[in-house]
Design a protein that fits this description.
four-stranded mixed beta sheet, 134 residues, 25% helix, 3 helices, elongated, alpha+beta, self-incompatibility
Length: 134
């Protein structure tokens, strides 16, 4: 292979690598995500929540009735960010993942950049929102 072909080949490989990582870069650099943990108990009970990722421990939060705890972040460069929460109340407890980077989760379950989890008398649920596109 002559030097000119070698340069072209290297440029093509670089372009292909950038295309393959485009969605990863888009998530990590351009998008801010918002997580909401909402206390929806009807009897005024406090919801306790301890949320964390591999890199960030948000501590234990005492969420009053009808209140919420929320935070905003960007994913790491390789879009590996995952947040989990341990939630507990008088009637039970729940361990769950509240955020991870997956196109299906983000578009279908998380509603884009806002993920909402709400406690109710019968458990903790992901709140789904429908968006109307004009």
């Amino acid at each position: 292979m002559n030097p000119a072909q070698n340069v072209v080949t290297k440029k093509m490989i670089l372009v292909m690598a950038l295309c393959l990582t485009q969605s990863l870069i888009t998530h990590s650099i351009l998008n801010k995500f918002h997580i909401h943990v909402i206390n929806g108990f009807s009897h005024g009970e406090i919801l306790e929540a301890h949320s964390r990722s591999k890199d960030d421990d948000l501590g234990v939060r005492h969420i009053p009735a009808y209140g919420e705890f929320n935070w905003t972040f960007r994913t790491d460069f390789f879009s590996r960010t995952k947040f989990s929460c341990h939630m507990w109340w008088t009637g039970g407890e729940k361990y769950l993942d509240v955020f991870w980077v997956d196109n299906k989760f983000l578009s279908n379950e998380c509603g884009g950049n806002n993920c909402r989890r709400r406690s109710q008398d019968d458990g903790v649920y992901l709140l789904l929102f429908s968006y109307h596109h004009n």
